[in-house]
Design brief:
By secondary structure, this protein is of the alpha/beta class. The chain is built from eight helices and five strands, in the order βαβααβααβααβα. Strands 2-3-1-4-5 form a five-stranded parallel β-sheet, sandwiched between helices. The two termini are about 30 Å apart.
Length: about 210
């Protein structure tokens, strides 16, 4: 898992809770058909597939984050195979360093139980697009049960989401090619901020 540099370039869509990652990824797939093989969010799949309730406090948190990091790496290895079959690039819904944003102590604490160095966890990704969390009115309107964008795995209030987003941004912006897309009033406006970065990523790797 450490020192691994994938053959097929990987792009990460990262961001805080309620930042629109799933909607942006859906629009990327619709706008650039066939360009990407998408890897879903590992933590969410763990929760749903195994009926797990993630620990938010205590020593069990290290076990949880270590399992998520290992599963993310395994998914990316399999994603490489699928992307080569499709002649596509890899698009990740979040990535390994995300785990550091969900624990006290940040990246240093994360590395003590996951292992490796910061570079080991950032280098597999060729570009990161980080989406900022919207203001409270938009956040509440899009994350309430029944709303378009409701995620049953999300538990944060807006204040908690903003705090989490700042932690995540502090980690991801350590990547040498991290592009931050500010919060926008609509997903259409947010995607406009993303599309130029996608175009550049595709050109860089001879796909546009």
């Amino acid at each position: 898992m450490f020192g691994w540099k994938p053959e097929v370039p990987q792009l990460v869509i990262a961001g805080g809770p309620g930042s629109g990652k799933d909607k942006v990824i859906a629009r990327i797939l619709a706008t650039y058909p066939g360009a990407f093989h998408v890897l879903g969010e590992t933590a969410g799949m763990f929760i749903r597939a195994h009926a797990l309730e993630p620990p938010f406090l205590g020593e069990d948190l290290s076990v949880w984050q270590k399992a998520i990091a290992a599963a993310q790496h395994a998914a990316e290895e399999m994603g490489q195979i699928m992307a080569r079959r499709k002649n596509a690039l890899v698009l990740c819904n979040r990535g390994r360093p995300d785990g550091a944003g969900y624990i006290d102590g940040g990246i240093d604490h994360f590395l003590t139980f996951v292992g490796g160095t910061l570079s080991d966890h950032l280098d597999p990704y060729d570009m990161v697009i980080f989406l900022d969390t919207p203001d409270e009115e938009i956040y509440v309107s899009t994350t309430a049960p029944g709303a378009d964008g409701y995620n049953p795995d999300r538990f944060e209030t807006h204040e908690q989401a903003v705090h989490r987003a700042l932690r995540l941004k502090a980690i991801w912006t350590l990547h040498p090619d991290c592009r931050v897309v500010p919060a926008m009033p609509t997903i259409e406006r947010k995607f406009e901020g993303v599309a130029g970065h996608i175009d550049e990523f595709l050109r860089r790797h001879g796909r546009n």
